[in-house]
Amino acid sequence: MRVLVTGSAGFIGSHVADALREHGHEPVGYDVREDPGADVRDPVAVARALDGVDAVCHQAAMVGLGDGFADAAEYVSRNDLGTAVLLAAAAGAGVRRLVLAGSMVVYGEGRY
Q1: Does residue 112 form part of some domain?
Q2: What gap in Å lies between CA 107 and CA 27, rounded to an integer?
Q3: I need a labelling partner for 108 at 20 to 30 A (CA). Which of 2, 33, 61, 102 fits?
Q4: Structural domain includes residue 96
Q5: Domain limits at 36?
Q6: Number of domain units in the chain
Q7: How far apart are CA 37 and CA 45, in angstroms?
Q8: How far is CA 4 from CA 58, 59, 63, 91, in A?
Q9: HEC profile for 75-89?
Q10: What is the CATH number of the domain that holds 94?
Q11: 31 within some domain
Q12: Mean pLDDT of 24-40
């Protein structure tokens, strides 16, 4: 299976790509750290990346807690808009398999 792995240069994404490869799949890396044009907010670039892909494993995200509300617009742009662009493009390309990662930012910090 050919799998687009967004955030493939990150900690989790790189391990996902390795595991896919070890199990006989073909990971297709997509990460702005490796290619500045690989931005999940760019519908044209995302559509190109999805060409011939059977599944998507979406790990791309702006991570960390940031500096509070000063970073809110950038987080929303990269994480929310980027995910929406990716999902729309995947649906348009007929990709029917998706693994979507989440984090503590979605769920909030638990009690320790």
Answers
A1: no
A2: 28
A3: 33
A4: yes
A5: 2-107
A6: 1
A7: 7
A8: 8, 10, 20, 14
A9: HHHHHHHHHHHHHHH
A10: 3.40.50.720
A11: yes
A12: 96
